[in-house]
Amino acid sequence: MKAVVKVGGFAFPGRGEDLVSDYVKMFRERVGEDHILVVAGGGEIARLYIKAARKMGVPESLCDHIGILVSRLNARLLVDGLSEYAFPEIPVNIDELKHYFSSGKIVAMGGLTPGHSTNAVAAIAAETIDADLFINATDVEGVYTSDPSKDKTAQKLDEVSVGRLGEILSKVEISAGAYELMDPLALRIIQRSEIPTVILDGRSTSNVVKALQGGKVGTRLTHG
Prior knowledge:
7-stranded mixed β-sheet; two-stranded antiparallel sheet; 8 helices; 42% helix
């Protein structure tokens, strides 16, 4: 199965160093079972750099570029950890993405273009390789009816339509380093190509494995 796994920044140095090793181990174990493309988020380090840049009056597009560079560094960490199981280079455009993926090895990448979150990049990657599954591994259990950290009545959804998720996330800030779960561009790409998508708690790699094996976990997006 061809799968794109977006690994959120929570898994990388600055907040969750141990999780990087967990993901490398899990991806190694999936070799021969799935052909995986991993998109790394920028995480806390990216946010710190972006915050410093904003203080200096750096334009948002350049702040985005800083976040892209950090996400590529996170992808490099995965590539080096995976060693011979990964393609040795980080793709920086769609042509390279296709070429590297055709090698049959695991491909790890970060951001591509300012203004595109790594969630959108992951959706574009899934569309490009005609993925059988797009997994967004986050630091929450899935999609809730509202922010569970602020609303005690928030309920987790086992399934949600792309349109409904867009409504739930409509008040989320869209700026460099501030993307949550999915952004409008990612949702449009998922909808137009009807990409099978699961949003799940990536703090345990067993959840990712369960999704790859077709199990019920997190929140599945529907296209109705």
